[in-house]
Design a protein that fits this description.
Layout: E1 15-19, E2 26-27, E3 30-31, H1 35-49, E4 54-58, H2 75-85, E5 89-91, H3 98-105, E6 112-114, H4 122-126, H5 129-136, E7 141-144, H6 155-159, E8 166-168, H7 170-184, E9 191-194, H8 203-209, E10 215-218, H9 223-229, H10 244-257, E11 260-262, E12 266-269, E13 280-283
Parallel strand pairs: 1-4, 1-7, 4-6, 5-6, 7-8, 9-10, 10-11
Antiparallel strand pairs: 2-3, 12-13
Length: 286
């Protein structure tokens, strides 16, 4: 599966707008795992090595629900990236607006600007065309290296790609090569482990893998929609009631093809969703 990559673009003298996945875990203002930042470094370094280029980075962090929230600011990420690339990363106060325009216009070759959390605006997840255009104005070319969010049709991942010369970053290129070979010539047994919060964002992946795999292991919050479709009690666990019929249809299709679907059989629960809540193990088969 061939994709146009950042190495196919002429970056000389260009301002590169790059979507990264810096949705890292932060506790008490400290990043506890910088793996996602590390994975973006090869593309960041490649861009900065090209003659006359500058770089504008955009990402989301957490779920701020369409409005600014200090706990989800990317400032801590900009500080971490500064130490990793040994180069100052300028932190923007927002991802759109006149202040950002001023910072972008003053960006010199070799400099890096980090936009503030794109999900501080609900237009991001709405894939709003005007918001996409405002983001696209910050670059001459667009590079998407946010593999973890590439499946979402949001303004910074999908909308902008229609407005600028676009390519995949080196991380996405690596993942596409790996999955391309795996899916083109699957060997059995082939087990797919699929997790996440929502069936709605994963059902297309499940359905596309159905003809190829021998077993699905479904975990994470999305498992509860499948369990409820089987008539199993899930308490107050996360569920998408509007996708119960979809889950039921998928389970039936898997059974017809002889594909095993494994769901959680026991669970750790608590009486409230808090870090210090008292855990309790329960049987999930009733």
């Amino acid at each position: 599966m061939a994709v146009t990559t950042v190495k196919d673009l002429d970056l000389a003298g260009k301002r590169v707008l790059m979507r990264v996945d810096f949705n890292v875990p932060v506790k008490d203002g400290i990043i506890t795992d910088d793996t996602r930042i590390q994975m973006a470094l090869p593309t960041i370094r490649y861009v900065l090595e090209q003659e006359g280029t500058s770089l504008v980075l955009m990402s989301h962090l957490g779920r701020p629900k369409g409005k600014p929230s200090p706990e989800f600011s990317l400032k801590v990420v900009a500080e971490k990236l500064t130490s990793l690339i040994s180069k100052p990363v300028i932190m923007a106060p927002d991802c759109i607006g006149p202040e950002v325009e001023d910072l972008v216009s003053k960006l010199k070759a070799g400099q890096v600007l980090m936009l503030e959390n794109v999900r501080f605006h609900k237009e991001e997840t709405d894939n709003d065309p005007e918001f996409s255009a405002q983001l696209a104005a910050w670059g001459d070319v667009y590079v998407n290296d946010a593999f973890g969010t590439a499946h979402r049709a949001h303004a910074s991942t999908e909308g902008v790609a229609h407005l600028l010369p676009s390519a995949a970053g080196l991380l996405i290129e690596k993942e596409v090569k790996f999955f391309g070979n795996l899916l083109a010539h699957p060997e059995k047994p082939f087990v797919a482990v699929i997790g996440g919060a929502k069936v709605s964002t994963k059902i297309a992946v499940l359905e596309s893998l159905l003809p190829k795999v021998s077993t699905f292991i479904i975990c994470g919050g999305m498992a509860y929609t499948f369990l409820k479709a089987q008539g199993i009690g899930i308490g107050k666990s996360l569920v998408e009631d509007e996708f119960i019929q979809t889950a039921d249809s998928f389970l039936a299709a898997a059974k017809e093809k002889g594909v095993e679907v494994i769901l959680p059989v026991d669970h750790v629960v608590a009486d409230e969703f808090k870090e210090d809540a008292a855990p309790q193990s329960v049987d999930g088969q009733t």
